[in-house]
Amino acid sequence: MLAERLSRIRGYLLDMDGTLYIGDRAVPGAVELMRALQGRPHLVLTNNSSASRRRYRDRLTALGMPVRLDDVLTSGEASAQWLFDNTPLRRPYVLGTRALSDACRRAGLTPATADDADSVLLGYDTTLRYARWSDACLLVAAGLPYYATHADRTCISPRGLLPDAGAIIAGIEVTTGRSPVVLGKPEAAMVEAGLRRLGTSAEETLILGDQLDTDMQLGLRSGVLAVLTMTGEAARRAPEMPEIKPDLSVSGPAELLALLRDAGALPRA
């Protein structure tokens, strides 16, 4: 039954950090998988809203995995577009990097100061300063609509797991008692943006990722085939979330490529 489902796959969503690369090295088999997907609907996506899609494109290209700019989807882009399409809000207070502010502008939003904001949009802010964090807390406490690009607790790095947007969210929650509406993985806004770009249905799309609580939850909630790779965080954190059961687990991109070829979804080399 799994082979039959794999044979129907036409679109591919691929997480980046921990799935295609870790630090400055490609995960074994990632280059071969990405080359096999050339000319087929595929997107590389990330919950990390701290960097621009251009930076991700350049990083992948340098590792031997060339992608087009339009083939990169960040949670910042998906969140900004969702706000524009689904709310009247147009002036978010952005607690994030320049990349997130730029994504807002491309979507038709205007990043605002604390004095004239109509909402708060929080991202993975690697430039975080206490004054801006405090302003966000005051706006959230005042009752402004409050959103986050994602809620990942950690970000994988060659040094280990680092605090991600979830840590910033936790600080605001401790201060205000409020939690944001999350828009990135595993929420619907992210998968809807991905499927819209791919032009495929959930049933003919798979997601390959290394995180159970984001990548696999996205697939399981939306009907996208959830494929877990044991190359990143999953290898460390799987015992913490035994209730999340992906549709398929693989050792890495090379094993997935072999399975797709065996099922006829991709041609043999």
Question: Can you put this structure into words, describing what you see?
Answer:
α4 crosses α8. This protein folds into two domains: about 120 residues, 3-Layer(aba) Sandwich (Rossmann fold), CATH 3.40.50.1000; about 110 residues, 3-Layer(aba) Sandwich (Rossmann fold). The protein has about 270 residues and is α/β, with parallel strands linked by helices.
Helical content stands at: 25-40%
Q: Which sheet architecture does the biggest sheet show?
A: 6 strands, parallel
CATH hierarchy class name of the largest domain? Alpha Beta
The domain tally reads 2
CATH architecture of the largest domain: 3-Layer(aba) Sandwich
User: How would you name the CATH homologous superfamily of the largest domain?
Assistant: HAD superfamily/HAD-like
Number of helices: 11
The separation of the N and C termini measures 24 Å
List how many beta strands DSSP finds.
14
According to CATH, the fold-level topology of the largest domain is Rossmann fold
Binned strand content: 15-25%
Topology order in helix (H) and strand (E) letters: HEEEHEHEHEHEHEEEHEHEHEHEH
Low-confidence stretches: none
Shape: elongated
Identify the strand order in the major beta sheet. 5-4-1-12-13-14
Class computed from helices, strands and strand pairing:
alpha/beta
> What is the radius of gyration?
18 Å
Mean pLDDT: 93
